[in-house]
Amino acid sequence: MRRLRRLFAGGSSGNEQLTAVVGTLLLPLLAIEGATLLSIRSLLNVHAFVGMLLIPVVALKLGSTAWRMVRYYRGAEEYVLRGPPQLALRVLVAPVLVASTVVLFGTGVALLALNQTHGTVVALHKASFIVWIAAAGIHVLTRLPAMLHALQRRLVVAGAAAAVLSLVVGIGVATLTLPAADHLQDTASAQFGFDSN
């Protein structure tokens, strides 16, 4: 808990900036992940690599948001003064976004671990993506002005370091799972009747 407090030592302003920095980092990574869907059969290994890279970054984003929520509901003055997100976002969008994110990445990891390119887990992965893209779209559109405002302030070093560290860890995780991603690509290539090389 002490390490978390040091990480979020910038208070509500530092937390807001950390969330904004991580959100900014996520946007191009998610765009790359989305672009792989245009040719998923031939880019499955890239899709899996970027998906694994995203996990620590997404975890940090969820963590920074959860920290704000906990601090707000526990009555920390500076978080209370900033107020909660809009009611609809807090009650409807956020729970759907968090749940669909967990299912989307969980099923993605399961597909990689099980080397599956079809079946129930694939169907869950696809369904969770549809739910996730809708919730994430609403979230990004409503939070974009606050994100841009937070990024205009002086950068909090701890937040920037945490964002970079999550990216480095993501690259490490993705690199370690690259053989499994290549194997999944080979399985898909054999199933669909073309060679990926």
Helix content: over 70%
Quaternary organisation: single chain
Largest sheet composition? none
Determine the number of helices (DSSP H or I, runs of at least 4 residues): 8
Helix/strand-derived class? mainly alpha
Q: How many beta-strand elements? A: 0
In total, how many domains does the architecture comprise? 1
Name the beta content range.
under 5%
Overall geometry comes to elongated
Elements, N to C (H/E): HHHHHHHH
Q: Mean pLDDT across all residues, rounded?
A: 87
What separation lies between the terminal Cα atoms? 48 Å
Spans where pLDDT lies below 50 across 5 or more residues: none
Backbone CA Rg: 18 Å
Structural description of this entry:
Helices cover 83% and strands 0% of the residues. With 197 residues, the chain is mostly helical. It has one domain (7-192). It is elongated. The N and C termini lie far apart (48 Å). The mean pLDDT is 87.
Key features?
8 helices; 83% helix
Which helices and strands appear, and what pairs or packs with what?
Layout: H1 2-7, H2 11-36, H3 44-73, H4 77-82, H5 87-114, H6 120-151, H7 157-176, H8 178-192
Helix pairs in contact: 2-3, 2-6, 2-7, 3-5, 3-7, 3-8, 5-6
Short description:
The protein is built from eight helices and no strands.
